[in-house]
Amino acid sequence: MQSLLRQILNDVQPLVGEGKVADYIPALANVDPNQFGIAIFSNDGELYEIGDSQVPFSIQSISKVFSLTLAIKHYGDTMWQRVGREPSGLPFNSLVQLEYENGIPRNPFINAGALVVSDMNQSRFATPHYAMREFVRKLSGNPELQTDHKVAESEYEFRYRNAAMAYLMQSYGNFENEVEDVLRSYFSSCALRMSCVDLAKAFSFLANKGFSNISGEQVITQEETRQVNALMATSGMYDEAGSFAFKVGVPGKSGVGGGVIAVVPNRFSVCVWSPALNSVGNSTAGVAALESMTKHIGWSVY
Ligand code: GLN
């Protein structure tokens, strides 16, 4: 595994820094684009890492998987009345489908879908972001995980697009709580800071039939685990989900902080981070690293 990581690093080195750091969230614009790290956490509890694997970064949309998992734990199958399971084929922050589809977002990993899922968690917890942070601290085994309040504030200040989606969904009756409260919870969860090591550990339950070796609990059922992985495979990489399946061939989820998490079912979870993004908002070097990884291990879910 360690030599696999060295090979990957070698393969993608020329791409590190290629692309653009997300700057529509001003507090993210100052991140050094030339960073790169990977961590792999195997189902038998081994950790492998290389590069900037312990540097915490803004997890952004990777948080959508944690929120979804929390919601599934409580709502089970009923949650699918409020959010769909189809890829959108549009940018992550698009509003256009909402009007055609009566305020039901296409899937939980576009922003509109994640906002509905946050609304569900808002109905259930008095302090939803803290509930979510506690959940993620347990899954990662890192009680020190912090929220970057500056990033959350900065997103709230420039919330217009996400606010527009949420109010549009509210107009269709697909929102239960105060939009502004849900936006704040959603941005705080996106603003969690985690390293590749934290994330690889926290996602290990998805590679291990829903059981976390870190927290020692069955997080969601085996069937629900399969469902979350299927959603990541079809919608986890936004408008690049198709070519990610084509080139990499495992479930993945990206965030505009430059992190990408991938799950190799029954084997390991892996997190790659490099802040410079391609045109759809996925880490350029991160996607390339995962492509190199599945090539080297000669394995994909397909
Ligand atoms: N917090 C970001 C937003 O709502 C998340 C986007 C992302 O990582 N793709 O715009």
Automatic annotation (TrEMBL):
Any one biological process term the GO annotation gives: glutamate biosynthetic process
EC numbers: 3.5.1.2
Gene3D superfamilies linked to this entry: DD-peptidase/beta-lactamase superfamily (3.40.710.10)
Reactions it catalyzes: L-glutamine + H2O = L-glutamate + NH4(+)
Pfam family, one: Glutaminase
Class of enzymatic activity (EC top level): hydrolase
Family in the record: Belongs to the glutaminase family.
Subunit structure: Homotetramer.
Protein name: Glutaminase
Record organism: Marinomonas piezotolerans
Primary gene name: glsA
